[in-house]
Amino acid sequence: MASPSITDWISAVSTAALGVLGFFITVWQWQLTKFRPRLASRIDGGREAIELTIVNKGRASGTVDQVDVLLPDGRIDSGLIFEGFADGAFTPLQLSALSSMRIIIQVPPGRVFDSGVQLLVISGRSRPKVLTPVSVAQGVGLFGLRSVLPPGSVP
């Protein structure tokens, strides 16, 4: 019985390498098909408004189910105004694939956000995310900006 030649070994190794490469590319492409929201938040210098930016990096649409502002003691802040929403109250939104939205959360007149507030965002099937807003430069205001929401999301 003759032993395998060098060309047989090269053929076997290259076939195995292509199989492994194909497996990793398939897994990578499968990951891209999910709803993958990326979150960022900023708070203005006067602590009158918070901007939440949600960018869907995935190829599937998904729902942003809940957005709340957490006080430093962990309680949910109530009475806030979600600009662009009916009655100023947040309602769940559908975010299309490869799209983004900006939500402006404002305090009622005569109030400011406590220092150390955080945002709680629940979207898709992932675990709730807690974000600490980054302060923008003093003198730069977010209060009065308009939310940019997906078309047809809010009546």
Task: Walk me through this protein's architecture.
The protein is built from 1 helix and 9 strands, in the order αβββββββββ. The protein has 155 residues and is an alpha+beta fold. It folds into 2 domains: 1-32; 37-135, Immunoglobulin-like. The strands form 2 sheets. A 5-stranded mixed β-sheet has the order 4-6-2-1-9, with no helix packed on it. A hairpin with a 5-residue loop joins β1 and β2. The longest helix has 27 residues, at 6-32. The radius of gyration is 23 Å and the shape is elongated. The mean pLDDT is 89.
Summarize this structure briefly.
The protein has 1 helix and 9 strands; from the N terminus they run αβββββββββ. It has one helix spanning 6-32, and strands at residues 37-43, 49-56, 62-70, 81-82, 93-95, 100-106, 118-123, 129-131, 134-135.
Tally of domains: 2
With strands numbered from the N-terminus, the spatial order across the biggest sheet is 4-6-2-1-9
The overall pLDDT average reads 89
Which architecture name of the largest domain does CATH use? Sandwich
Count of individual helical segments: 1
* Computed CA radius of gyration, to the nearest angstrom: 23 Å
Kindly state the number of beta strands.
Answer: 9
SSE topology:
Elements: H1 6-32, E1 37-43, E2 49-56, E3 62-70, E4 81-82, E5 93-95, E6 100-106, E7 118-123, E8 129-131, E9 134-135
Parallel strand pairs: 1-9
Antiparallel strand pairs: 1-2, 2-6, 3-5, 3-7, 4-6, 7-8
Short descriptors:
single chain; 155 residues; alpha+beta; Immunoglobulin-like; 2 domains; 5-stranded mixed sheet; 4-stranded antiparallel sheet; elongated
